[in-house]
Design a protein that fits this description.
The protein is α+β, with helices and mostly antiparallel strands. It is 22% helix and 36% strand. The chain is built from 8 helices and 17 strands. Strand 15 and strand 16 form a beta hairpin.
């Protein structure tokens, strides 16, 4: 009997036998325990997980694949007034505290604050029943499109293109591992009507005479000087906003997440827990009401642009805008990201890969030695050029 086994993706499992995976009886008997949802493999009974490359459910032990049946419903927008009717779930009372998943594979309890994770002992995919714990249940998910290998290839291209990066950065793709996570995002729709007050600036020019010195002599010249004549302006503009995206988690900086855009939201699928199997899914900690205020701030910038366009003229001043929001809707979406955190010179650096488009963003170190060498080489080139010019 072996003292440890390796589950899918090389995750170290706890003490057990040399059996490739949990038997059908264990998976079936534990299914639903602790609010965990799981799907047994039709071939060997182990718990299957979502495979980005195949876009299907795949067994990490025997490799058997099963197509993921599409739900017979569309992704829906929910009226904002619906929030007032939603009652708090147990999650709201213990926000930030760990929850226990009972693994359907080995029966172990895993402490996690995520909506989906892996068993820390046997690496079995664990997905919580969102209906039991979430005030707002995910409406849609953009499934992982890039598997670990494809994401690693994108990272390799990214590291190779970083100027003045230390040589160790290019080895990150070989030495480090990725972690796939779904991140919660809110989307908001609204029909806005905005009344504004401002000023329209119109340019006019006058001729100005001035004196200057040319070739040692005082000469008189003229030039055109721009002035602005301001007029009161007011009016009304309207715009319909669709899918204003706001991060639903505070665990990742929103400015960093914004760099992963645009997301192909049109490829979203109605939420199914099967899409989460095998990945970490972060629960939202930004409430939808808070997210709406952020969305309105983003809408405000676009609305001000509309006001300026409506004012016209050469310059515009917008002094006040009063906006009414109608037909406001929202939904909770899960978006896929590959995370990589690596150490260099005693500091942690994080890289993220959009698991649908392949966009890579992240922090990177700089090599002082390479920068110094480049400066020295540039100095040599300049010295040679100067020498050649002086010799002529």
């Amino acid at each position: 009997m072996s003292t440890e086994e390796r589950g899918p993706e090389g995750v170290v499992a706890g003490t057990g036998s040399t059996q490739a995976g949990p038997g059908p009886e264990a998976a079936t008997a534990a299914a639903g325990a602790g609010g965990v949802q799981s799907t047994p493999c039709e071939a060997c009974g182990a718990t299957v997980e979502f495979s980005p490359g195949a876009g299907a459910l795949k067994c990490p032990y025997c490799g058997h694949e099963r197509a993921l049946a599409e739900l017979p419903r569309q992704v829906r927008e929910h009226p904002i007034a619906e929030l007032a009717t939603l009652r708090d779930k147990p999650r709201a009372a213990v926000l930030g505290e760990a929850r226990a998943f009972v693994c359907p594979g080995c029966g172990a309890r895993t402490e996690t604050d995520d909506l989906s994770a892996r068993c820390q002992f046997c690496a079995t995919p664990l997905v919580a029943d969102a209906e039991l714990t979430e005030r707002v249940v995910p409406e849609a998910v953009v499934p992982f499109g890039l598997d670990r290998r494809a994401a690693r290839d994108r990272l390799s291209t990214w590291t190779s293109s970083r100027w003045f990066a230390p040589s160790s950065l290019k080895k990150v793709t070989e030495a480090e591992t990725f972690k796939g996570s779904y991140l919660p995002h809110w989307t908001y729709d609204a029909a806005t009507t905005s009344h504004y007050q401002g000023q329209r600036g119109e340019h006019y020019y006058t001729t100005e005479t001035y004196t200057t010195t040319e070739n040692g002599e005082q000469v008189t010249r003229t030039r055109q000087v721009q002035h602005t004549r301001w007029h009161h302006a007011s009016g009304t503009v309207a715009r319909a906003f669709d899918d204003i995206l706001v991060a639903g988690t505070s665990h990742v900086k929103s400015k960093q997440l914004d760099k992963l855009t645009p997301w192909p939201l049109e490829e979203a699928r109605p939420y199914q827990p099967e899409y989460l199997a095998g990945f970490q899914t972060v629960r939202y900690d930004v409430e939808p009401e808070q997210g709406l205020e952020t969305a309105k701030q983003r809408m405000a910038g676009v609305i001000e642009g509309d006001c300026r366009a409506d004012i016209g003229g050469d310059e515009q001043r917008v002094t006040s805008v009063n906006t009414r929001y109608d037909d406001v809707t929202f939904k909770l979406m899960l978006l896929p990201v590959w995370f990589l955190t690596y150490l260099h010179a005693g500091k942690s650096w994080q890289v993220m890969v959009n698991a649908r488009t392949g966009e890579v963003i992240g922090e990177r170190p700089y090599s002082a030695a390479k920068i110094t060498a480049a400066i020295a080489a540039l100095a040599v080139v300049i010295a040679v050029i100067v020498a050649v010019v002086m010799a002529k």
